[in-house]
Specification:
The protein has 7 helices and 9 strands. The protein has 273 residues and is an alpha/beta fold. It has one domain: 3-Layer(aba) Sandwich (Rossmann fold), CATH 3.40.50.
Amino acid sequence: MGAVPPVAPLFRLDGKVALVTGGSRGLGRTIAAALAAAGARVAITARRASWLDETAAAFAAEGHETLAQVADVTDAAARDAVIDAILARWGRLDILVNNAGTTWGAPSLDHPLDRWRTVLETNLTAAFALTQRFAHEVIERADAPAATGGSTSVRGKVINVSSIMASRGTDPQVVSAAAYTASKGGVEALTRSLAVEWAPHGITVNAVAPGFFPTRLSEGLVSVHEGAIVSRVPLGRLGSERDLAGVAVFLASPASDYITGQVLALDGGATAW
């Protein structure tokens, strides 16, 4: 092995284009901001225009090139419109972050099937459909097969946002969310499956599984049960924007080119117990 190359450039995203769904608030906004700070041009989607406009304005004020588009990821036409807008503006798409999600808290004996379908459609089915379109664009953009001489160059990166709830039962005294946990378990299985299938095309697929972070989706739960939640975290605190930002850039950057099919728990050690 030769000399170790400079490390800092491995974490840069200059010239790359990223799409972050659910990018106007919470974890999605943190991820989008981190990718933009690392040099990427970033497209964000959300269902609420006011939140998108606010986030896009904040990014622009920091000098980041951003595209913001209202979209419901469960709508096929909306998904295609977002990809088409990105390609029309920047001519490429290199990084996809499937962050948009929803939940419904209810005891499993009483969980409405229509809400179950909504959660699965948003968190799992829409993520697959968007990833499928992304992969087509990456593969079709390639001038030649990615695999040459037994090696594969990375052309596209998918980061799925899962949850530690995918790998452990939930405490019913804190939350009952069977649909959410099932959908995130599906996201992790999908991550591994697509990683193997699409590696020859130069596409890596990984997931990050956050523990509890103070976001709009979890604020009600955290406000009531923060003490109980933190007591189960060896590092003794909730997650922060800083914790997520570095992980997102790592998984999107050349620094992680030899990593695919992995789920990174970002939980302060909660799943280690």
